[in-house]
Amino acid sequence: MELSPFAGTYLTDPAAVWRDLLHRPEEVHYADDLGMWLITRHEHVRQAFGDPESFGNALTLAPVYEMCPEALAVVMRLDVPATTAAADSPVHTRTRQALRATFANTAPRVSAQYGPIVRRRVDELVAGLVDRRGEVVDLIPEFAALLPLLVVVDILGVPDRDVARIRGWADGQIALIWGRPEPAEQVRLAQGLLEFWHYCQDLVARRMNGDLTGDDFVSRALRYRDGDDSVLTAAEVASMAFNLLVAGHETTAGLLAHGLEQALSVPGRWRRMAEEPESVPAFLEEALRFGPAIDGWLRVTLRPVTIGGVTIPAGARCLLVIGAANRDPAMFAHPDRFDPDRADAKDHLSFGYGPHFCIGAALARLEARIALARLAETIPGLRLVPGHASIYKPNVAFRAHQALPAVVDVATVHKERRDDPPETVRARAA
């Protein structure tokens, strides 16, 4: 069974493909259809993440297919400087330092700085779902994908009126780079990506020409820059905003969706979450291991590398198959069993490893913990539509649900919340 992210089994049961890859005698192999080397074992994926001298990032954000000339002409107009995800040292070292100084990335800092934003947005969305009692709702666009986007636009100081545009641009970037759209769609998505970049440039320009005393990320980054291009350029600040508006919500949306699917597919799990909110963090770590939001990430070899007894030549694109690594039986006992009480769940690689470890990991964990605990407390009878089977969007990197339909059970909305009118719930959130 080949790893084909754009059709077939991988769109309905990626774990079956991961199992097949892990049980092959060769530990690393070349995928002709993708034109990439697949690295699947936990120890090897961890090794690649932790060795930036051998595995570079220059092609991480380059399309995984040959783009049509018309779309390529549009993309060539993008003058986005590499900062963090697509940068190597020394640029990565400098920009990562700037990001660490301006974007809260430890659990205490994240809780103090972003916790109020997360709680307010969670309560708004939960109140909206309570308003839909008795209805079938798609939890992806109405909760899992929307919450992280609302949080990140608050952090960056972006107005709510731009949320729909940003969501379309971000989804388009993921489809354009890691999907395989038809030529006409490539052109449309490329034009959207260019508009998105100009939007981020304008956002930075408005801050530079106005008041920089705000607490939003762009103002913080510009104060950190202090007019010194050797610290950060204005274009690099715009590039950081550009990346955060995608990575800052798409990955957390995936975590929430996978977590909701696992919790709601077994009624006892959802009940436990409602009754024991302290169980949510461990549940989320297992959700991260079992179904990562990013199940494959790209690197390019900077020199010949021998890994798993196979020598990969210099200049080769490699796909680090995180989903397979997280199910590696050499690392995890009974890897295909979802076990919220698993002691070693945190050994997953869903946030990467090494110098490029996801800087938003603490924020993603905080958002998912608050969101799931609050939703389970308020709507303990929430349940998936009977017979629902997950289908994922065709993509090399992002494992995103097409839909997650659920019934908001009117009889099992928590009494304190059921008796309160929606405006009271919203007032409490404020």
Task: Describe the protein.
- This protein is α+β, with helices and mostly antiparallel strands and 430 residues long.
- It is 50% helix and 8% strand.
- Strands 1-2-8-5-3 form a five-stranded mixed beta sheet, covered by helices on one side. It has a three-stranded antiparallel beta sheet with strand order 4-10-9. The protein has a two-stranded antiparallel sheet with strand order 6-7.
- Strand 1 (28-31) and strand 2 form a beta hairpin.
- Helix 4 (91-102) packs across helix 10 (217-225), helix 5 (107-130) runs parallel beside helix 15 (361-378) and helix 5 (107-130) runs antiparallel to helix 17.
- The radius of gyration is 21 Å and the shape is globular.
- Biggest sheet character: 5 strands, mixed
Order of helices and strands: HEEHEHHHEHHHHHHHHEEEEHHEEHH
Count of DSSP E strands? 10
* Amino- and carboxy-terminal Cα gap: 51 Å
Strand content: 5-15%
Structural category is alpha+beta
Backbone shape: globular
Family: Belongs to the cytochrome P450 family.
Protein name: Cytochrome P450
InterPro entries: Cyt_P450, Cyt_P450_B, Cyt_P450_CS, Cyt_P450_sf
Keywords: Heme, Iron, Metal-binding, Monooxygenase, Oxidoreductase
Q: Key features?
A:
single chain; 430 residues; alpha+beta; three-stranded antiparallel beta sheet; 50% helix
Give the gist of this structure.
With 430 residues, this protein is α+β, with helices and mostly antiparallel strands. The chain has 17 helices and ten strands. Belongs to the cytochrome P450 family.
